[in-house]
Amino acid sequence: MRPIYRGRNVPEAVRKPPVHTVAGMGTTATHCAYCALQCAMTLTADAGGRVTVGPRDFPTNRGGLCQKGWTAADLLGSPERLTTPLLRDDRSRPFREASWDEALDVVADAISATQAAHGRDAVAVLGGGGLTNEKAYQLGKFARVALRTKNIDYNGRYCMSSAAAASNRAFGIDRGLPFPLPDLAETGAVLIAGGNVAETMPPFMQHLTAVLDRGGALIVADPRRTATADRATLHLPVLPGTDLALALGLLHLAVADGHADRAYIHDRTTGFDDAWRTAAQWWPERVERVTGVSVAAQRATVAQLAAGARGRGAVILTARGAEQQSKGTDTVSALINLALALGLPGRPHSGFGCITGQGNGQGGREHGQKADQLPGYRKIDDPAARAHVAGVWGVDPGELPGAGPSAYELLESLGTDGGPRALLVHGTNLAVSSPRGHRVAERLAALDTLVVCDVVMSETAALADVVLPVTQFAEEDGTMTNLEGRVIRRRRAVAPPPGVRTELEVLTELAARLDCVAAFTADPETVFDELRRASAGGVADYAGISWDRVDAEGGVFWPCPSADHPGSPRLFADGFPTADGRARFVAVEHRPPAEDVDAEHPVYLTTGRVLQQYQSGAQTRRVPALAAAAPEPQVEIHPDLAGRNGLADGDQVRVVSRRGDAVGRVRLTTTIRPDTVFMPFHWGGDQAVNRVTNPALDPISRMPEFKVCAVRLERVGTS
Ligand SMILES: Nc1nc2c(c(=O)[nH]1)N[C@H]1C(S)=C(S)[C@@H](COP(=O)(O)OP(=O)(O)OC[C@H]3O[C@@H](n4cnc5c(=O)[nH]c(N)nc54)[C@H](O)[C@@H]3O)O[C@H]1N2
Ligand SMILES: Nc1nc2c(c(=O)[nH]1)N[C@H]1C(S)=C(S)[C@@H](COP(=O)(O)OP(=O)(O)OC[C@H]3O[C@@H](n4cnc5c(=O)[nH]c(N)nc54)[C@H](O)[C@@H]3O)O[C@H]1N2
Ligand code: SF4
Ligand SMILES: [Mo]
Prior knowledge:
Bound molecules: ligand MGD, iron/sulfur cluster, molybdenum atom
Distance between the termini: 35 Å
Helix content: 25-40%
Structural class: alpha/beta
InterPro entries: Asp_de-COase-like_dom_sf (IPR009010), MoPterin_dinucl-bd_dom (IPR006657), Mopterin_OxRdtase (IPR006656), Mopterin_OxRdtase_4Fe-4S_dom (IPR006963), Prok_molybdopt-oxidoreductase (IPR050123)
Number of domains: 4
Cofactor: Mo-bis(molybdopterin guanine dinucleotide); [4Fe-4S] cluster
Strand order of the largest sheet: 5-4-18-17-16-6-7
Shape: globular
Largest sheet: 7 strands, mixed
Strand content: 15-25%
Protein name: Assimilatory nitrate reductase catalytic subunit
Oligomer: single chain
GO biological process, one term: respiratory electron transport chain
CATH class of the largest domain: Alpha Beta
Radius of gyration: 24 Å
Number of helices: 25
Keywords: 4Fe-4S, Iron, Iron-sulfur, Metal-binding, Molybdenum, Oxidoreductase
């Protein structure tokens, strides 16, 4: 087999405009490659092409970086970097190297032939929340006007979709944090439901530490006493999948104990009475039975939040623990109801927020990669939205496709009768990160054509017919929108390895080969200026945000409708962007997880992250320091549960559900509930916990139930 990686790609130092560089030759100010905190960093390339990372002060990270950030440059010159297009005619055979012209011709021909034989929707696209705004926008446009397929969705479906759906229905807008992160440090009490920022966004902890240092409260709901919960004033060891009951119980106590802000509810909200009718049924003892959180802890939570609300402020945050459930949307709604009852949203140093995950998880969900959206957070089934965006694109609104299925449903439909026969993947390693992995692999295998753009040979790329090597963070210019809704600049610090192209070029070349009438360009700033026009008047209005402004101001918060608008760091002070200007309580009821434990599968499995690995691990498993620090999945098990299953620390354990199994190493710990095991999802093959997880979808957000299913544990070997 011929080698598919090339090891000679040491990036050259670059020459880029003055505003891009900071003190010292060849030092570029940019932001991290990975998560939504988008920590500010500098990249310095030496004469030999080696790139070093330095921390940079910014309101979000205040000079801090986590281990992933510090090592973010290691993938640039990695021998595992893809640098040549790869092709094969037969998936049982190895790839061969190809020229860009040949590879792009093959892709364009496959698209044309598939669509000629099976219709426009026979070609599907999956995008990613790590793509820059420019790439995400261009990808959505490419799907709608070059492919004219309805079948496009993205991995944010697995991430922020429940948070987004609940925020939209309560507030009329979905911006993860409605205030700048430093506001958090000023508040008096914080509740985090299902977030472990000490590992997932370590520099975020500074803002929480500031709260604690002033005597404020930090309450963390998590089945594990995580590094974050360890710092908390109160840890709520909630049973996986029961946050909705917990939130109803907290609302119950807030009202029963006299903490509800009646004036706020009256003046600024609607729907309280209906929401209260269900919460009234969730008295604390019942909540304790369902969630495992004691009545005393529930009462203390409400008292601490209420004390905050009366003083410096209080903030309720959710993250994936509470959201990645088949009822994630309703769970987030229940927590928003609690925040509204306490009168938090729109008050100084107070409010409700969801912690966005991916680098551009926020921007990635605003500009049209989502099945039901057009740029500017417009709805694809809204005639006015279609007319506006079609006008910017120079096409007839009638030619734009309608809404397509969500990511997992799209995957389920691949290669089925009437389903897509070709799939283009941009920025997601779905073979590792999608639930029910065996099924997903089966559907990918049923495709006629799988095309993957990536920087490395991910598990998904390894299944493809065509792999196209693209640029990564330090090799391209663009914008990202961080977890605060602040649009920031990603800057090119080094030249990409020879042979690598940007996704903007790939899409432009393909659009030309497909004889697309709409204009495509590979220049990111031109793409951004078009995005501004396409978003103008939408909920996520970027019209007034230019690259120059972002450079000069260090970031601009959307919405920002005009060049003279200051941007919107804080939302809701004067009202909510709903029809009547009020926030809406949404009446929700608790329901159990889609799959409960039974005699055959008696243990709850939950999944998530560890500090040193990012997502599917495609990038971080290839960074030597990170691979050494977290070489394999550790299955966290309470000693009592381990004893009952004959498991010892260091054993290999097989985690088995009704859908499949995955293998990891036992890590005994008393920090987890004795009825629950935790396994991170950063590995592929037989270490992929997503072979085990349940694809039960939230009826509104279509979020899979990553955070709870039923398993049994089998010992594989001894330490
Ligand atoms: N190191 C690292 N950092 C990352 C990422 C990464 O892959 N690695 N990914 C980024 C992305 S895209 C995202 S979305 C964020 C995610 O950031 P987080 O949401 O903080 O991460 P998770 O580990 O998925 O889940 C958080 C916690 O939820 C808990 N949990 C599990 N089930 C439940 C439940 O039913 N209820 C409650 N209340 N808690 C539960 C888990 O024990 C876990 O500690 O991280 C971002 N940052
Ligand atoms: N069991 C379980 N599963 C989960 C989760 C969980 O908590 N538990 N969390 C879910 C969540 S929140 C998320 S966000 C998803 C994330 O899961 P994935 O969508 O798989 O995320 P990544 O691993 O970041 O995949 C990004 C891929 O794109 C490549 N890449 C990086 N930059 C670029 C670029 O600019 N262009 C292109 N074309 N490629 C690029 C990377 O090398 C990588 O292969 O996983 C979900 N899956
Ligand atoms: S917290 Fe996120 S953005 Fe900051 S250095 Fe770590 S991975 Fe990068
Ligand atoms: Mo995510």
